[in-house]
Design brief:
By secondary structure, the chain is α/β, with parallel strands linked by helices. The chain contains eleven helices and eleven strands.
């Protein structure tokens, strides 16, 4: 017997609720929208439409994987960020709404009309593509270590029609010239953090999540190296852990950045820190990269 749209949603929601999901209805809708290739309005308009046996079979497989905790974004292959539909894959982190705080801050800065900006560790390309979508006159580039993620970011850029150049390499290695804006959401989780065994992060690449020195090593390396690549009055914006704001801001100041401050994410946690480079003396904090060479997503 075939299931209707309403019938499948009811069953799927009950299944996910039993497994402790706090977004059971939304998850069920997203899976059904993905398989039927429709929007949410269609689901509510046609609740009595029947789902084919083939569609039901594919939905059952996805529902089982979601029931085991696999992120919706990996199941559907798409995640929206800054109103951009981005293709995602298990080789990259899933873009999160909290990172949009970085975009908002970058867009509020007083920068040249033809700003040169680079996103380090771009993953899906989310940050770079969001900036390029808002400022067509900017020259936006991105750096990514892993070849699978490089191809994914390039595919997203091409599909969205955004002129973002994605280079493969480790942090600043492929970077040439100087920039008015450097942004990054690097690995910043302590390898011993228990949150790595919870939620979506269980399925995301560890290399894109963890860093040595309590999660600070990549942040420190970027801060220590960025002055070589920043124009006078250029800005460095970094996403970091909720408990790292003081350490990141201190490191920025120690390396000669001014106007150093922090902003909070959607959950009220200190998430983005930034500083302006005016040139001159550079101090010292650890500034060491991860011991493992796979330290960029």
């Amino acid at each position: 017997m075939s299931l209707t749209v309403a019938g499948w949603l009811k069953q799927a929601q009950a299944c996910l609720l039993d497994s402790g999901s706090d977004s059971a209805r939304l998850d069920a809708e997203l899976l059904l929208m993905h398989i039927l290739q429709v929007n949410r309005a269609w689901l509510f308009t046609w609740p009595e439409k029947e789902i084919s046996p083939d569609q039901t079979s594919r939905l059952s497989e996805l529902l089982q994987r979601r029931d085991q905790g696999e992120p919706i974004a990996y199941l559907t292959g798409v995640r929206e960020f800054w109103s951009l539909p981005l293709k995602v894959a298990p080789s990259t982190l899933i873009p999160r709404p909290d990172t949009e705080t970085l975009i908002e801050w970058a867009l509020s800065l007083t920068l040249p009309e033809h700003t040169r900006a680079v996103d380090l560790g771009t993953g899906t390309g989310a940050i770079a593509l969001a900036l390029a979508s808002e400022h067509p006159t900017w020259q936006v580039s991105a750096v990514e270590f892993y070849s699978e993620a490089v191809e994914l970011a390039r595919e997203n850029a091409e599909r969205l029609g955004l002129a973002v150049k994605v280079e493969q390499g480790s942090w600043f290695e492929p970077v040439q010239g100087t920039y008015d804006l450097i942004v990054s959401n690097p690995p910043y989780i302590d390898p011993q953090d228990h949150h790595l065994d919870e939620g979506d992060v269980r399925f995301e690449p560890r290399s894109a999540l963890v860093a040595n020195n309590g999660g600070m090593s990549d942040l420190e390396h970027i801060i220590a190296t960025a002055p070589q690549y920043l124009n006078d009055n250029g800005w460095l914006l970094l996403e970091h852990g909720y408990n790292q704001a003081d350490a990141v801001c201190d490191c920025l100041r120690q390396h000669g950045f001014v106007d150093v401050e922090n902003r909070r994410d959607l959950g009220g946690q200190p998430r983005i820190s930034a500083g302006r480079w005016t040139g001159g003396w550079v101090g010292h904090c650890a500034g060491k990269r991860n011991g493992d060479e796979r330290y960029e997503r």
